[in-house]
Amino acid sequence: MSASMAAFCLGLCLGQVIQAQKGPLPKPSLQARPSSLVPLGKPVTISCQGPPGADLYRLEELISRKYLDQAELSISAMEQRFVGRYRCSYQSGTSWSPPSNQLELVATGNWAWGVAGLVAAGLRGPQFWAQRG
């Protein structure tokens, strides 16, 4: 292939990449495997998926506002401290995607931490009513 043909192909390819980057980035998807309902002590992986070629992924836990600059969070044994709402986004060039839909990670099993823990985690627990005798 001649140098001028190679330059033409390179220009065409770059033009398509630049054209593809115009406009808003698509929203990523967030999922928990094997499920977002996780028995205490069992493993779960939270994964963010965006288009190929994303430069950086960010996973965010919404209650604490803490984040990790990675596409996956692997939890080897589910604990109550991981319960909460998560979302993710990705960076492509200098642009950030809109956030994914929220994923709510719920621990199942022994609920020894009570209703206060459910409320702190942003979950609705059972309602208790007191009556005066």
Descriptive overview:
- With 133 residues, this protein is of the alpha+beta class.
- It has a domain of 86 residues: Immunoglobulins (Immunoglobulin-like, Sandwich), CATH 2.60.40.
- Helix content is 20%, strand content 33%.
- Strands 2, 4, 5, 7, 8 and 9 form a six-stranded mixed β-sheet that branches. It has a three-stranded antiparallel β-sheet with strand order 1-3-6, with no helix packed on it.
- A hairpin with a 2-residue loop joins strand 7 and strand 8.
- The radius of gyration is 22 Å and the shape is elongated.
Number of helices: 2
Name the CATH architecture of the domain at 24-109.
Answer: Sandwich
What order do the SSEs take from the amino end to the carboxyl end, as H and E?
A: HEEEEEEEEEH
CATH class call of the domain at 24-109 = Mainly Beta
Helix proportion of residues, in percent? 10-25%
Q: Report how far the terminal alpha carbons are from each other.
A: 94 Å
Q: How large, in whole angstroms, is the Cα Rg? A: 22 Å
How would you classify the quaternary structure? Answer: single chain
Mean pLDDT reading: 79
GO biological process, one term: immune response-regulating signaling pathway
Protein name: Platelet glycoprotein VI
Signal peptide: 1-20
InterPro entries: Ig-like_dom_sf (IPR036179), Ig-like_fold (IPR013783), Ig-like_Receptors_ImmuneReg (IPR050412)
List keywords for this structure.
133 residues; alpha+beta; Immunoglobulin-like; 2 helices; Platelet glycoprotein VI; Ig-like_Receptors_ImmuneReg; Ig-like_dom_sf; signal; disulfide bond
Write a brief structural summary.
The chain has 133 residues and is an alpha+beta fold. The chain contains two helices and nine strands.
